[in-house]
Structure formats: structure tokens, C-alpha cells
Write a structure and sequence with these properties.
The protein has 293 residues and is mostly helical. It has one domain: ABC transporter involved in vitamin B12 uptake, BtuC (Orthogonal Bundle). Helices cover 74% and strands 3% of the residues. The chain has a two-stranded antiparallel ribbon. A hairpin with a 2-residue loop joins strand 1 and strand 2.
Length: 293
Amino acid sequence: MGEVIQILILGLALGGVFALMGSGLSLVFGVMRIVNLAHPALIIGGAYVAYWGFRLYGIDPLVMLPVSVVILAATGIILYKLVFEREAQAATYSEMTVLLTFAIAMIVEGGLGTAFSNTQRVTSPDYATDAIFIGDVFIPTGQLYAGIVSLVIIVGLALFLKYSHFGYAIRATTQNREAAALLGVNVNRVSMVSFAIGLGLAGAAGALVSFVFSFFPAKHWEWIAILMSLVVLGGMGSILGTVVAAFLLSVIAAFVGAWVGATWSTLTFFLALFVILIVRPEGLFGEKPELAS
């Protein structure tokens, strides 16, 4: 029983981080129908912001988190204005964004690799290697802090979307862009701010990732399938679904890694993506598309 509890704790702690990593991706797809393949690469960018803040000035990555958020959110506004705004009305917009974001991911990876090399890095505050012991069970302090901060941010996002005036506009645009525009919602402004929020969440996730995982510029290719499995399983565009999927798959992966082998742990996410696309493409919380009459 102690082993089961230990594995469950580790899975839940990482689930919070994965939930935050996937939330920005889900938000951007829900509002703009952008399949942002560059999202994990931008998370790496946020991780470098936290890493160099700690390395050069000794600033805790949790303190650097707002800095990563602001930098990545500003990057989101610039990318939206330069790349995505002009083509938003195109019939093939979603398909086109796959290629655009793939190109952005390659550019970000190349830029980070040129600036910082492909050396593995990790931010190392004291709590990153500490643990809290409760009997025979231990809770890694770094993962605990990252999980708690992730949940706080996600809850804050949920409250913003549910109760703020702008949150209403985002939800309306997510449900039906044309109807929202007819009701007076500035869909272009909502899209820009949502893209900035989505990348801001990537920056926040990057600051947490910097001390939970080791990272390097090409690491994002390992994460894209993991994040897509969360978003697809939860339902494309559903933040709640992404959070549920993150905890579910993280716990399952933790048990698979402990009982079958570490190399099979990541395969859990890939297999889940494969199965959900065959069995229930709309995901757990997604809406089933209506058949054309």
C-alpha cells in the first residue's frame, strides 16, 4: 500500500505541471482554432528565462515566474500581429496554423540552440532536491511546489474566464466566433489577448519546468505528443478536460513507469493519444461534431 501511495503522489504532483503546460495550448485552440505546435518550444523559452535569472542573479524560479509570463505574453502579442492576425478569416486557417507553428517551433529551437547550445540544464534552488517525509512516503518538495503553483494559476484562469467581463467574451468566442461577433464582441481583440494569455501560461509552465525537469532546446519534440494527448483526451479547447486528462495520464504513467519500466512511461501518453483518436475523437469533455445533413 505504501508503494501505491508513493506512486500516486508522484503522479499527481507532475500532473499539476502537465495541466498547466497543456492549458495554454487548449485555450489558444478553443478561441482561435490554432494547433500550436510551437507551444512546448515556447515553454522551453520560459524555462530559460527562469534558469538565467537564477544562474546570473540568484533569483528563485518561482519569483522569476511572473517575468517569464510577461515576456512570453508579449511574444504572443507580437506573433499574433505578425503571423496569425491577417489569415484569421481564411477557410483553411486551422490547417495553415499547423505549418506556421511548426515553423515557429523550428525557429525558436534554432534560436535557443544558437544562444545557449544544446546542453542539458536545470535550475537548482534548494527545494528542488528536498523532500517531505511522512512515514515511509516522501513528497519531492520541488514537484510539490510546482504542482501547487500550477493549480493556483489554473484556478485563477478558471475564475477569470467564468466571472470577468473579458472572460465572458473569451467563452463566447470559443463557443461560436460568428455569433460572438454579431453580439458586439471584438473577436480580433479577444483572439490577440487569448493568444497572449496562452503563451503567458507557457511562460509560467516554463519557470516551473526549469526545476522539475532537465531541459534543452530540442526537448520540446518530446513534449508535443504528450501535450497533444492531454488536449485531445480532454477535448480540444476544453481547459477542464485538459486538467483532468493531465492528472489521469500522469498517474497512469507513474504506475506504468514503476511497475513496467521507465521507458514505457512516456509511451502511455502516445498510446492514449492513439486510442482516443480512434474511440472518441472529441475527447472526454469535447462536443461531438454534428453530421452534415
